[in-house]
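User:
Can I borrow your eye for a moment on a structure tokenisation matter? Would you put together a sequence-and-structure record for a protein of your own picking? Please set it down just below, with no commentary around it:
AI:
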Amino acid sequence: MSTPDRMLSILDLFRDDTTAAFQEDVMAHLECSRATAYRYLKSLTESGLLAPTAGGAYVLGSRIIELDRHLRQHDPLMRAAREVMRAAGDELNANLMLCSYYGDKVMCVDRYWTDHSIESSYARGRPFPMFRGATAKPILANLPPYQLRNLMLWHASEIREAGLGEDWDAFRANLKQLRAAGVCVSHGEVDPGLMGIGSAIFTPDQKVVGSLVFIAAEARTSPKRLALLQERIQAAAAQVTQNLQNLQDNGAAAIGIMPSRPRRQKAPAGASPARRGKA
């Protein structure tokens, strides 16, 4: 791992159950000296990505908020999907999620919610594994073979538990079926009582970049309604894909994914975890 990669991996210490990170946490995470941990923390603080607080703790810095605002305004995927989500949601009185991915995680990057009686744990920015739900499986099914092999190498047990295959051949065959279907329907795989109806979104060079998903209450979704949602989500995802092409043709920044190699997160032997507290 290069020096910049090591330094940026300090941000991995911040999770839902972690309120702050300390110098000792960085030393354990990177297996480095106190001087190196201090140097990295100083650089991240000067860039605004971290901020020091009481007791020698570090929290996420205000630069994160600035970058999030920029993302909401200028991200090509969000721009390409915004009006499509609004139109489909209003017409069908349906809730939609726009999802993207990095490495071996998928996350909701935007939502359009018309039915507030439905709530999903897929809050914007919360990462989830790539093996469950209609948010993740359309992305998973369209990843390149080398990345799928890495996922099988590092996450074989999760893949088996998700019912996606006991071995590489079964995993590949199941994904081929998902890819051919063009739409994925999941039942309670992330939130009990909810179903997802999702389809993949592609860049102009036909690399998968995300998914568009209807979230519906299973008890209130008739077979006729489900068939309609399946049809419309494929059309909506195709429109987002076309919008990305139009943005590129009009000179907007191209969107692409450079996935990192999926890896199992392991704590170094004898390392103390990042200190935790209530958010």
User: Anything to note?
Assistant: The chain is about 40% helix and 20% strand. The CA atoms of residues 95 and 116 lie 9 Å apart. Confidence is low (pLDDT under 50) at residues 257-261, 265-279.
